[in-house]
Structure prediction request, 369 residues.
Amino acid sequence: MRTLQKVLHIQNFYLYNVIFWVILCVFDIFRTYSFINFFDLSFNSENLILWPVSKYIIYWILSYWIFDIYLKTRQKSLPSFIVIHIITGLGFAILHRLISDIAGILLQRLFFVEISGSLSDILDNWDSLIMEIPANMIIYGMVIIILLGLDYYHKFVDEHIRLLELESKLGSVQLKSLKMQLHPHFLFNAFNTIIMMMRQSKNEVAIKMTSGLSDMLRHSLAKEPHQFVQLKEEIELIKKYLLIESERYKDRLKIIWEIDESLLTQIVPSMILQPIVENAFKHGIEKNLEPSTLKISVTSDDINLYLEVFNTGSFLPINWNIQKNKGIGLANTINRLMKLYQDGFKIIISEKNRGVAVQVKIPLKNVSQ
Prediction:
């Protein structure tokens, strides 16, 4: 059977239980002393301490009975749960009064020479039991409410942790999915270009491309995907990608890099640029028979990092809307950014300088942070 400590995920729970009853006992003694002192009443100092101690020792002992009942009833329906604990609370109230009276008299005989009570006093004071039943039932209900609160709190925390783990796993799956979407299209073009280079006896170029392709595949497949990398790693990946693509287009492609080197240690989502660069080729450069320009720039302000991919040779369709016209790669990128940054990012796609620019704005985060 699971213990309450395991259910509530609280280390040293039973130690906290002892401390809880000790605090209530001390508070009860202090409250009684303050009342007696305020009205200038006579009192026996031994009894002032003895009887609250005996009462709260029994509360502490019976609390384990309450814990056991709670564990057995926590999964029941609300009406059944309430009825069971009203009945059990009544039994707890009566049992506590009887046992605490016995414990008080035994402690009195054990520690004090003068005995002011006997076991027969329990029967003589039976009528006062009715007065204590409501108070003891309130104590019982207070313990149940505390247990319910702790139980629901830790269920909420466990569910929150589970959702975070699920989102993390989902992000990894999406990243792996993004890589699998990249490879078939890219590899097909890369191998065709390498074969073409070999047929033209351009062996040095073919070797260079094969080496670049090997490095790129090793980078992306040889290890578990990381959600974040340094900007310089992301740039290196894009350079390997463009090394192969540039051989396909030769003089038809001009690549411009505008990157602030002080930003290379910034943390960015892994493969954040690759699908955007691939879209620049797929929707712009591949369809343009004239020389094209691809420009990749990285800038920042005091708060945000700006990653921009610009290509000439294409324009946005009329009435183009990012929500309606985003492809798989762009949709995957937006979903990843939403999970990583919530509302702290922005993607802007616009026409400028006879081409299309895609800008991604994310918070600045240095590797040392």
About this structure: The CA atoms of residues 36 and 43 lie 8 Å apart. The longest helix spans residues 129-199.
